[in-house]
Amino acid sequence: MKFSTKKTLVAAIALTAVAGPFAASSALADDGEPSPWLVRVRMLQVMTQQGNDAATGVPADSIKLANRTQPEIDVSYFITHNISAELVASYPLSHQVQSSGKYIGGLQELPPILNLQYHFDGMGNFVPYVGAGVMYMRTMNVSLQGGALGLQQNNWGEDVQLGADYKLDSHWLLNADIKKTWVNVGLDNSTGGTILQLHPDPYILGVGVGYRF
């Protein structure tokens, strides 16, 4: 998937997430729905891919950001009974970086994700959903090859999502979720010139609990 083909989707998701709550809150109340707000806490496994373009002295797919496990919190707003907007937040993730199996440094990155989701009916307490949207990866505290290499700070990508909630009662639920993301991050030299593009493209697996207000 190319990022240029996603601009319309990204704009639609952002517009829906901003305008949807104002347009739909009264309709949800009239239909006797629970509160449109849902908060989940999940433990994530962030599984990055070994992917990069080739450059002088750097073979293709030789650079790897280490996997990470850490908690996150996400907030969903149900625009309708079936459609919601989900914002995934996290504190910065720290990654060690290897090139051809050799440690070359580390970095931190903050990866919020905004998705538009569709939740399916007809399965009782089991509620599967699909989603798609946009992710923003901000890199910080980069230390690669003793400072000889840097990373582009602001990076955008896309993701798709598959998950399910299991309702324990009218408020509490269990959740399992998987996201596949695509993002390019420029690897720069000491003068700020981009040497190549990294493609960490992580799978993000999560399990946790949620509360519908």
Summarize the model shown:
The chain is mainly beta. It contains 1 helix and 14 strands.
Can you walk me through this structure?
The chain has 213 residues and is mainly beta. It has one domain (3-212): Beta Barrel (Porin). It is built from one helix and 14 strands; from the N terminus they run H-E-E-E-E-E-E-E-E-E-E-E-E-E-E. The strands form two sheets. The protein has an eight-stranded antiparallel β-barrel with strand order 1-3-4-7-8-10-11-14. Strands 9-12-13 form a three-stranded antiparallel sheet, with no helix packed on it. Strand 7 and strand 8 (126-144) form a beta hairpin. It starts with 6 loop residues before the first helix and ends with a strand. Residues 1-30 have low confidence and may be disordered.
In terms of topology, how is this protein built?
Layout: H1 7-30, E1 37-47, E2 63-65, E3 68-78, E4 83-89, E5 93-99, E6 102-110, E7 113-119, E8 126-144, E9 150-151, E10 154-167, E11 172-183, E12 185-188, E13 194-198, E14 203-212
Antiparallel strand pairs: 1-3, 1-14, 2-5, 3-4, 4-7, 5-6, 6-8, 7-8, 8-10, 9-12, 10-11, 11-14, 12-13
Give the CA-based shape: elongated
Tell me the CATH topology: Porin
The end-to-end distance, rounded to whole angstroms, is 36 Å
Please tell me how large the radius of gyration is. Answer: 19 Å
Low-pLDDT parts are 1-30
- The strand count comes to 14
CATH class, please? Mainly Beta
State the CATH architecture.
Beta Barrel
